[in-house]
C-alpha cells in the first residue's frame, strides 16, 4: 500500500489535501497531471493564467510560432490523439498551439483538476508531516506529499530596470504578457526593445501594420529562414503514418529534433562541396540548415566560423543599405552559441521606409520619458513600447516563488550562485519536490515527455515502497553540479552571453542552467539511476 492515503480532494479544515500538487498547466504540467492521475493519485494543478498552455498561453504576440516541426512537437503518448489532430502548418502559430493544448486538456478531461487564476506565492516543506504546503496569492492553501514545479524554463519575463517606466504615458507590454484582446498598433509609432528569437518573429509581423517602427538592438543574432508552409492532405497522411519513425528519430538526436547531423567534418570536404551543402540546406525548412549540417559547425573552431561567415553574407545580401546590413551582422558570438532565431522576412523589414534600426550598444537606453525613450545620443517619440527583452530563465520562475525546504532553507538562496540540483530534477533539502522545468532543453515536448514519465515512475516507486521522503544526497548533487560546470564549460551553448548561462539578467550568477548532456545521454542516466534503486537519492 502506498505511504500516503489516496484521498479525493478532501478539505482538512482550511487546507485542501491532495496526493500531489503540480504548478503550471503548460506542456509539462498537463502531461504530469495525466501521468499522476493514471497512478490513481488525486492531483491539483495551480495555474497563474485563466487557461492551459503555459508558453503557448502567454506568448500571444504577433508572429509567435514553433521553430520545431509541428508534427514533432505534439504529445506522443496517445495514438488516438496523434491520429485525430491535424497540424495545419509545418511550423504552427500560437493560436493553433493554444487550441491544441486545449484540445488535449479537454480530450483527457484535465481541466477539472486545474485551479486557474492561481498564482503560487509560497511552497513550504512541513517536516513533521512530510508534506508541501502550497499557498496561492489569494490565500488558498493546499497540502500534498509531492510537489512538481512545471513552471517552464522561459516563463519569468524580464523587463530591464529602466528609469522612468512609471512616467511613460503610452501603451507598453512585454511579449510574454501580450494582452489577450491584442494591441492596436495600426498607424502608431512603435518601439521594440530587443532582437532575440521573439523580437525577430514580432518585428517581421508588425512592421507592415505600424505607422513607424523603431527597433532598439543591443546585439544582432544569426537568424535563418524558417520556410514555413501549409501541411497538405497528402503530407498529413504521410505524417500520421510515420509517427513512430518521427519520434524514434527525435529520440536519437542531441536536442530531440528530427534533424540528424551530417557525420562529416565541414573541413573534410572541398570548399565547393561545403558551399553546395550550405546552400542546399539553406533552402530547407526549419533547423535543417543548422542541425542536418556538418557536425562540427556546432563545435568552436574553423568550421563554425566558416558557416558563420556564410550566414553573415546571407544577411548582407538581403539588406539594401550596407550600413544597416553591417549593424545586423553578428560579430561578437559564435554561430550556434545562442538559439538560432528562425525568420520569415526579418531582414527585408529593414529595407522598409517606416523602419529604423538603432544601435543601443553604442548609445544605451538611458531612460523612458513620458513620450518615449532616450538613449545616450537621441530621444525617440513612441506611442507604444514593446519589451522583447527575454526571460530570467529556468531559475527565475522558481525564485519568484518563496520555496522553503528543510530548516526553512530558501531555494532562491540555495540557487544564488546557480542551480544546485541532481540531474536538474531535485535539490537536497527539498524532499519530494521535482523541479522539472530545469531539465529539458531542445525540442521541448520531446525532452519533457520522458522526463515527466521518469518523475511519475519515481513517485510511484516512493509510494509503493512506503517511503515518505526522496531527495538527492549532497554527494550526488555536488557531483552533478561539478559535471554541469566542467562539461558545460566546453559546449557551444555556454560561450555566449545568453539566457542559457543567466548572462542576460544583470547580477545573475553565470552558470549553465540546463544539462550539458544530450537528450539520449540524459535519458540513459536517469534510467540507470532508477534501475539502481534511485542511486544518488536518499529514500526515507
Ligand atoms: P532573448 O533571446 O533573451 O532576447 C532578449 C533581447 O532583449 C536581446 O536582444 C537582448 O539584447 C535584449 N535586451 C535585454 N535587455 C536589454 C537592455 N537593457 N537594453 C537593450 N536590449 C536589451 O529573449 P527572447 O527573444 O524572448 O528568446 C528567449 C528564448 O525563447 C529563445 O532563445 C528561444 O529558446 C525561445 N523562443 C523560441 C521561439 C520559437 O520559435 N519557438 C520564439 C521565441 C523565443 P542582448 O542580446 O544584447 O542581451
Describe the structure.
This protein is α/β, with parallel strands linked by helices and 540 residues long. It has 17 helices and 23 strands. The chain has helices spanning 27-38, 55-58, 70-73, 79-84, 94-107, 197-206, 233-241, 243-252, 271-282, 288-291, 302-318, 322-328, 395-399, 411-414, 444-464, 474-488, 519-531, and strands spanning 11-12, 15-17, 20-23, 43-46, 114-115, 120-126, 131-136, 141-144, 146-149, 171-174, 189-193, 212-217, 224-225, 342-343, 355-359, 365-369, 372-375, 379-381, 384-387, 402-404, 433-434, 470-472, 537-539. It has a six-stranded mixed sheet, with no helix packed on it. It has a five-stranded parallel sheet with strand order 5-4-3-9-21, covered by helices on one side. It starts with 10 loop residues before the first strand and ends with a strand. The relative contact order is 0.14. The model is unreliable at 1-13 (pLDDT under 50). NADP nicotinamide-adenine-dinucleotide phosphate is lined by residues 66-67, 154, 160, 193-199, 201, 216, 218-219, 339, 360, 365, 388-391, 499, 504.
Topology:
Layout: E1 11-12, E2 15-17, E3 20-23, H1 27-38, E4 43-46, H2 55-58, H3 70-73, H4 79-84, H5 94-107, E5 114-115, E6 120-126, E7 131-136, E8 141-144, E9 146-149, E10 171-174, E11 189-193, H6 197-206, E12 212-217, E13 224-225, H7 233-241, H8 243-252, H9 271-282, H10 288-291, H11 302-318, H12 322-328, E14 342-343, E15 355-359, E16 365-369, E17 372-375, E18 379-381, E19 384-387, H13 395-399, E20 402-404, H14 411-414, E21 433-434, H15 444-464, E22 470-472, H16 474-488, H17 519-531, E23 537-539
Parallel strand pairs: 2-8, 3-4, 3-9, 4-5, 6-20, 9-21, 10-19, 11-12, 11-19, 12-15, 13-14
Antiparallel strand pairs: 1-2, 6-7, 7-8, 16-17, 17-18, 22-23
Helix pairs in contact: 1-15, 11-12, 15-17
